Amino acid sequence: MGTISLNVDGSFGVSVKVGDVVETGTQIGLSSDRTEPVTSPVAGEVMEVKFCGQEHKFVVVIEEKKLQKCGN
Amino acid sequence: MRNVLVTLLVVIVILTGCRAASPSVESSDTTSVILCIGDGMGAAQVAAARITAGGLDCKLVMEGMPYVGLMRTHSADSAVTDSAAAATGLASGIKTNNGMIGITPDGKKCVTVLEAARDKSMATGLVCTCGITHATPAGFAAHVRHRKMEETIAEQLLENRVNVLFGGGRKFFLSDCGDTGGRKDGRNLIDAAVKNGYEYIEDAQQLRSADGRYVLGLFECGPLTGQPPEPNLVELTAKAIEILSRHSRGFFLMVEASQIDWDCHANNIDGCIEKVLVFDKAIQKAVDFALADRHTVVIVTADHETGGLTLQTAENNKLDVAFKWSTKGHSGASVPVYAFGPGAQIFSGVYDNTELAKRIAGLLGIKEFPKVTE
Asked: Which residue of B has its CA nearest to A8?
């Protein structure tokens, strides 16, 4: 278990906020050339969403966690 | 009737303790244009700054201008533009796709109003608080497929012989700019610029004494911080006007308050308001010059709105507002246009962002505009 950082284009925002729980494949935003969705490669919790002005991008930090599912 | 409105406006401003431009310049010809762009600054951002600075009845300098328009901002391929496509529209009068700078969607070069002004022997300038190679300034003097090609943009800004280039982004002009990195090709564009006649400056003290015909001011490796020894946007604007106004054939100057957008992306209302108020002080410098010069039009607008900001009634006080954001991205809302000076009335009405460049070109007597080349 660790943390991962994802870069998302700034113009079209980011689909998650700090505290959100995401699953593998959850869309986070768009790639820098806006041709591809950026999805979370892990399940976990969003720890940080930071806007970097000069690069005009969001950096989203996700802490990998085992998600407890209902019925388990 | 207009004089009555102007008098009323001045009385309101005096009573509220707010500042506003005196819209009393009358002239038959416009020889210079100062275009002020608040990146991401929609009507709500202006209102937020106004209310915070002086209360509900206050007016900012920009709001004291006599002519107001509303501008659509969509790009060629999206209802919501980015700064690259928006700058291309504002600068060249031509719609392009998001991400593209100064070219049509099929890759043809769009002549910008800055380039057309230069070709009429006018002086030109770009001032910003981001890197000078960022999308908005680039849109006025560069032509690349994607806004991220900032090393190429740096070359093109200098090749375009823009008289005044003030901003950050030194790392795109040098092979090594400390921790921020540098150009991949190892070139030193600053040395090359000096050899080609540019005076190069890096701090506020050097800015004050700069007197070249061509001045390159790169005050940070990255974006400006707003802290000394850097000059602030107000000082940069005043100096750019001082340098450009020495030219006898008029000038075109674009001033961008770049980081309003960044605070709106972060949904940081305090930062947003602070940046809008500094921008308003820079606009005051432009208006002061236009009042004295009488041949300069000052236009204030935005490239797009950022954050989907709304002002709602505060929970415990009906006369106060609460700020709410609807997105961390850009929105498709129209943006205000404020104009002052000879010919400013043509910026009234509701129109597309591509119209702005066409109207500026018309004011300056630029023929064949918009114009596309291979």
From this structure: B329
Contact B33, B253 (CB under 8 A): yes
Q: Is B82 on the interface with A (CB under 8 A)?
A: yes
DSSP B175: S
Delineate the domains of chain B, giving CATH numbers in brackets. 33-373 (3.40.720.10)
Q: Please tell me the least confidently modeled range out of B1-5, B98-102, B133-137, B212-216.
A: B1-5
Please give the angle made by the CA atoms of B17, B308 and B64, to the nearest 5 degrees.
25
- Say which CATH class A3-64 falls into: mainly beta
The answer to whether the CB atoms of B98 and A14 lie below 8 A apart is: no
B129 part of contact set with chain A, CB < 8 Å: no
Residues B232-258 pLDDT 10s? 999 999 999 999 999 999 999 999 999
pLDDT surpasses 50 at B351: yes
Any alpha helices (H) in chain B, and if so which ranges? 2-16, 43-54, 83-92, 113-119, 135-141, 150-159, 189-195, 204-209, 233-244, 260-265, 269-293, 353-363
Q: What is the pLDDT of residues B301-342, one digit of tens each?
A: 999 999 999 999 999 999 999 999 999 999 999 999 999 999
Question: A62: which strand partners?
Answer: A4, A46
How far, in Å, CA of B45 to CA of B49, rounded? 6
The alpha helices in B55-172, defined as continuous H runs, are 83-92, 113-119, 135-141, 150-159
Residue of chain A whose alpha carbon sits nearest to that of B327: A13
Read off the pLDDT band of B19 (50, 70, 90).
Answer: low
CA gap B17, B55 in Å, rounded: 10
The pLDDT score that the predictor gives to residue B23 is 46
Could you give the ipTM of this predicted complex? 0.85
In this complex, the residue of A13, A49, A53 whose CB is nearest that of residue B223 is A53
Beta bridge partners, B331, equal B305
Kindly state the percentage of chain B with pLDDT values over 90.
89
Q: Where are the domains of chain A?
A: 3-64
Residue B60 to residue A53: CA distance in whole angstroms: 26
Nearest to B222 among A10, A34, A54 (CB): A54
CB atoms within 10 A of CB B339: 25
Q: How far is CA B193 from the centre of its chain?
A: 24
Q: What is the pTM of this model?
A: 0.92
